[in-house]
Specification:
Layout lengths: L9 H17 L3 E9 L8 E4 L4 E4 L5 E6 L4 E5 L6 E4 L2 H5 L3 E5 L20 H6 L19
Parallel strand pairs: 1-7
Antiparallel strand pairs: 1-4, 2-3, 2-5, 5-6
Length: 148
């Protein structure tokens, strides 16, 4: 079956055709590539998640990665010990591939941590005598029977 657009004015036909082509191009899958850099010298695995499409991957040992994207997708980079980093896929981002993603070390400040209530002397016999313990047989836990 052949569809004719002869009943439409020429300019409207061209407009509809351009609209269809631009919409199809906007929905085209692309491959987003790059390399992850960190201040530390260790090799780390970074999670790369396309939040918009709910798909993800992991960086290679050398920090390189690739993931399928569409324009306007939001990509999240996350790794233990580092701040999360997000990027929105635009034409500019895709034209400047491969991109370099710099992850910043996460600083986790802890409140005061008390390691011991005891004033340890270094004498194991005296220090061990300060440790409280309970008799497991008093609560119904039998001694284990080890065979030597």
């Amino acid at each position: 079956m052949k569809i004719s657009l002869s009943f439409l004015p020429n300019w409207l036909s061209v407009f509809l055709l351009l609209l269809f082509v631009s919409e199809a191009e906007a929905q085209e899958k692309k491959i987003f590539t790059g390399k992850i850099k960190t201040d530390s010298l260790q090799e780390i695995s970074v999670n790369i998640i396309n939040i918009s499409r709910q798909k993800g991957t992991i960086s290679k040992k050398d920090g390189s990665f690739e993931i399928q994207v569409f324009l306007e997708d939001e990509i999240l980079f996350s790794a233990l010990g580092f701040e999360n980093h997000t990027i929105i896929i635009t034409d500019s981002v895709l034209k400047n591939q491969p991109v370099e993603i710099q992850l910043e070390t996460a600083v986790n400040l802890l409140e005061e941590v008390k390691l011991s209530n005891f004033n340890l002397s270094g004498d194991l016999v005296r220090d061990a005598a300060q440790i409280e313990y309970f008799d497991q047989t008093e609560v119904g836990i039998p001694f284990s029977k080890h065979k030597n």
